[in-house]
Design brief:
With 259 residues, the protein is an all-beta fold. 0% of the residues lie in helices and 68% in strands. The protein has strands at residues 2-11, 22-23, 29-32, 40-53, 58-70, 73-80, 85-92, 96-109, 113-129, 132-133, 148-165, 169-184, 192-207, 210-222, 232-244, 249-255.
Length: 259
């Protein structure tokens, strides 16, 4: 089965941001409107192909998407190193775009087990503006300028789930990893190679009107500029649910991040 869709969104510029105003209530952070601000518009497109196989209850899904934002807006700021004051306005930059490629495979492994594998590749480009500096009097709107830079993100994501289910138990083991390659078009911003990963087990046990839930997950990150981000962390969550009023209501007691 092949499906596709295309849509277009048009966003009118904010009335205040596109008016000729100056807000200097806080002299250390002055904001200005931009009468030349253009409206944003977004193009969304997607094409998906699904295949099903009776043997093993298999399903394969391939998805390709492309999004583009025309005249995206960002903040343009100027900084005075002597006074610590900022001047900020909204302006348009070059178009942003994103490609998405998704592949998902799902099948049964006998009567009680099931496997699901999901892969995704994303190529995205976004634009922003560097903060300019000034001395002396605050610049006029026409004098505000900054170098436009492009951030390119190539991201690869993989997730694998194996689940078990019978009348009393529902158990799922999973693992996922995401790699992001961030690069910038200007030398003042350094690129990054980021890793984010997780693995864990989630289980539910049903006994009469009671459901006991336990989830243990290991989270990890590498490649970030802050050492606080480059670490592993284990989280254990639990809850007990009691169904009452003939299934029309329930009472749940939860404990988050027990360890």
């Amino acid at each position: 089965e092949l499906k596709g869709n295309v849509s277009w969104d048009y966003t009118v510029a904010d009335m205040l941001e596109s008016s000729a105003y100056v807000d200097d209530t806080n002299p250390l952070y002055i904001t200005m409107g931009n009468p030349g601000l253009r409206p944003e518009s977004d193009l969304y497109s997607n094409l998906a192909y699904n295949m099903m196989f009776m043997k093993g209850q298999q399903m394969l899904t391939i998805n390709v998407g492309y999004n583009r934002t025309f005249d995206p807006t960002t903040r343009l700021s100027a900084y005075n190193a002597q006074t610590g004051a900022y001047i900020s306005t909204t302006t348009n930059v070059a178009d942003n775009d994103r490609w998405n490629f998704n592949l998902e495979y799902d099948r049964s492994l006998g009567e009680l087990f099931r496997l699901n594998n999901s892969m995704r590749y994303t190529h995205a480009r976004t634009h922003g503006m560097e903060t300019m500096t000034y001395d002396g009097n605050a610049p006029l709107l026409s004098q505000l300028s900054g170098d436009i830079y492009c951030q390119t993100n190539n991201e690869l994501h993989e997730r694998l789930d194996v689940s078990f289910e019978n009348k009393a138990w529902e158990v799922r083991a999973f693992g996922s990893v995401t790699y992001s390659d961030l690069t910038y078009s200007i030398p003042s911003l350094s690129g990054q190679n980021l890793w984010n990963y997780s693995a864990g087990i989630v289980g539910d046990y049903k006994l009469a009107h009671w459901t006991f839930h336990l989830a243990g997950t290991l989270y990890g990150s590498r490649g970030y500029l802050s050492d606080m981000m480059n670490r592993d962390r284990f989280a254990l969550d639990a809850n007990i649910t009691w169904k009452m009023l003939k299934g029309k209501g329930q009472l749940t007691l939860s404990a988050k991040d027990i360890l």
